[in-house]
């Protein structure tokens, strides 16, 4: 592709983004419309690399059969309700709980799996349009306006943390736009984080006094999560990949 074609393509994308902000909706593909949500963070408060948001999951406190974090995420972000139950394989999963078992001892654990918000995300590396991107504060997101639904990111993700929207959607949340033919995953409730609130999964876990999830700034040595990580050992899932994930686990 020539340089002039690249510039034209960039200009077209910028135009669609600006047009969406004015009209309140933008078409990203035939029959696909996304509501444009206002930025949760004030325009004069730039996202900074001085912070890196993360979550520590203490699997020792995850109750067997508990699904509160998943339910809270569904209710906050509006996924999982509009998808047809007739095809559960196509249902979105921004967060899910899995059971793991030590085959030699029979010891079992339940833990939540979501986007791990990697420092070097494979999903971003393979995305041909730049729709998958990492914010300066470590949150990995998908720009639905330029996602072409190629699903390369889904194949690249070692955590199977991304979902593809197959069906028409209804009753979307204005702060969590979704779209048929696009990929989506955990956003760490960016709309809440940008307003100095904790993610819905963490809030729900704390409300039930399980306290299995701790959210905070990994770069702040005085934050609760940093103190907890310093006090006891934790691991990354697939730490051998060297992705430096923002989600850490204790007890596995």
Number of E-type strands? 11
Radius of gyration, in Å, reads 19 Å
Helical coverage, percent range: 10-25%
Count structural domains: 1
Q: How is the biggest beta sheet arranged?
A: 3 strands, mixed
* The level-1 CATH class: Alpha Beta
CATH topology label: Alpha-Beta Plaits
Uncertain runs: 10-40
Q: How are helices and strands ordered from N to C?
A: HEEEHEEHEEHEEHHEHE
Overview of the molecule:
With 252 residues, this protein is α+β, with helices and mostly antiparallel strands. It has one domain (52-250): Alpha-Beta Plaits (2-Layer Sandwich), CATH 3.30.70. 24% of the residues lie in helices and 19% in strands. Strands 10-3-11 form a three-stranded mixed sheet. α2 (68-77) crosses α6. The model is unreliable at 10-40 (pLDDT under 50).
């Amino acid at each position: 592709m020539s340089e002039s074609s690249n510039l034209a393509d960039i200009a077209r994308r910028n135009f669609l983004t600006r047009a969406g902000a004015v009209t309140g909706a933008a078409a990203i593909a035939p029959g696909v419309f996304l509501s444009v949500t206002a930025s949760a963070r004030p325009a004069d408060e730039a996202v900074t690399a001085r912070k890196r948001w993360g979550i520590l999951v203490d699997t020792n406190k995850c109750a067997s059969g508990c699904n509160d974090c998943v339910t809270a995420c569904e209710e906050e972000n509006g996924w999982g309700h509009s998808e047809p139950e007739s095809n559960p394989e196509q249902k979105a999963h921004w967060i899910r709980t899995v059971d793991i078992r030590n085959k030699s001892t029979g010891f079992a654990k339940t833990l939540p799996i979501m986007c791990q918000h990697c420092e070097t995300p494979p999903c971003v590396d393979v995305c041909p349009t730049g729709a998958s991107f990492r914010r300066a504060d470590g949150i990995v997101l998908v720009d639905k306006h330029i996602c072409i639904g190629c699903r390369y990111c889904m194949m690249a993700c070692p955590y199977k943390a991304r979902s593809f929207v197959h069906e028409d959607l209804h009753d979307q949340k204005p702060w969590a736009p979704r779209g048929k033919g696009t990929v989506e995953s955990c956003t760490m409730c960016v709309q809440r984080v940008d307003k100095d609130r904790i993610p819905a999964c963490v809030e729900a876990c704390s409300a039930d006094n399980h306290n299995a999830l701790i959210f905070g700034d990994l770069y702040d040595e005085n934050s609760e999560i940093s103190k907890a990580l310093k006090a006891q050992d934790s691991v990354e899932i697939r730490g051998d990949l060297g992705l430096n994930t923002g989600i850490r686990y204790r007890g596995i």
